[in-house]
Amino acid sequence: MSNSLPPGSAAADSVSLEQLPFDNSFARLSAVFYTKLAPASLPDPYLIGINPDAAALLGIDISQIAEPRAAQTFAEYFSGNRPLPGSDSLAAVYSGHQFGVWAGQLGDGRAHLLGGVRTRNGIWEMQLKGAGQTPYSRFADGRAVLRSSIREFLCSEAMDALGVPTTRALCVIGSNAPVRRETIETSAVVTRLAPSFVRFGSFEHWGSQGRDEEIRILADYVIDNFRPELRSTEKPYEVLLADVARRTGIMIAHWQAVGFMHGVMNTDNMSILGLTLDYGPFGFMEAFDAGHICNHSDDHGRYAFHAQPRIGHWNLLALTHALRSLVGPLENARSIIDDAYVSAFESHFMQLMRDKFGFATEQADDEAFISASFDLLQAQHLDYTSFFRALSHLSDVGTPADAGLRDQFLNRETGDAWLQAWRTRLTQENSEDASRQVRMLATNPKYILRNWIAETAIRKAREGDYSEVANVLECLRKPFDEQPHFEHYAALPPDWAEGLEVSCSS
Ligand code: AMP
Ligand code: MG
After folding, report:
1. Which of 17, 165, 371, 429 is 20–30 Å from 88 (CA)?
2. Per-domain residue ranges for the chain?
3. 1-10, 202-211, 352-361 — which is least confidently predicted?
4. Distance 244 CA to ligand 1 centre (A)
5. Is the CB of 106 under 6 A from ligand 1?
């Protein structure tokens, strides 16, 4: 069964919000998996940002909300105040390991799944994050603050444009309704999109209770709706596990290559589809430090940059344990994830690295070269993104253009020696400047969501100016393009950004 519509059928080129073709597969599961409930109302909502690309994905023509009244209606829908016709709002239950410790039942404490929208590009589920309390809110208020909503909106779209598997984001709606965190802030709702929001923790929830039937139903749900090609295999559940492991490995290889740190790799934040999920205290690597901890609440650095690949494996083991009734004893299943995860991570990571350095072939010493280069990035405190971008412009012989890279080194001689080694490696494959530069510039972004950039957009938004949210989004949707009018977003962090901290508070 195909998820998508053939061209010319029900999902027309653009649809009105009232005609979105909903198909709510998760809501058709038994009610043990969720609680149906409407979002809480949000006082006087207003539109802060809309993403034209995600709107197009859903077939929503954003010119239909250009008029203030239409924009107001849009804000009513995506704040959760007014139900979208065809939606069937629910909060899903899940459990999980947080910071390596079993946390028991969690669930969508502030997310409302509206259902799936049938599009030409498959079914995209829509979820409102921050739309009020649910039975899984525990002691929290069900809300999200403006800053974390803007960060999630911008980052998920930046990641997608960087080629990293991720959930997407349609819009951010704000309200002056106060929410208490360390200080009083205002609330916002971000609309996220993904084929599914099922998490490792969705399985752990049932696995922890020995509820084999629910585990099987959920696994069948994932296979039938998202991985139908696995159904005909001899051992579909084992193949599903291998598929999750492989996709998780690919996702984390991308994270490492682009310098992304998730910040809270709890098992409840791990997507069963291998998508980057739940943007909170994330960060992008700036001055390279393999041990960097982006989440101020992560006291022991469990989720430090260099730990991410190992934590991915740990999380898969937790999933494997939850799936034991389907995939057999841990030793057997462990070998499945070891094979699938480790090989997917390593092969993708090495390929992404060769792409970053501009190597078109595999050579025996590549691993040693790449590892030594990371030592250099660390010792010289090089800005991860700027380094690779500057390298992308260089020729295979020294030219005045080298200055762009040499200036980044604390020690020029060290830089020159490294450049010499890089050029020697290029000669091994007769690398040709023009084609290599094109490839490298399409691999090494100029623009990433640096904390200072997000912070600038957030500060302006707090003052009622949403132009920066729109500008940053526009820029980050084309991270590899030279965009002279956005040149300032390629700058290193300004001094004032030194003390910026992000934590689990959101
Ligand atoms: P997170 O650390 O954001 O992944 O959240 C962990 C759990 O806490 C999830 O079950 C969330 O739904 C829930 N949660 C986080 N913040 C809130 C909030 N403000 N209100 C209700 N639930 C929340
Ligand atoms: Mg979460």
Report:
1. 165
2. 17-197, 201-355, 359-441
3. 1-10
4. 24
5. yes
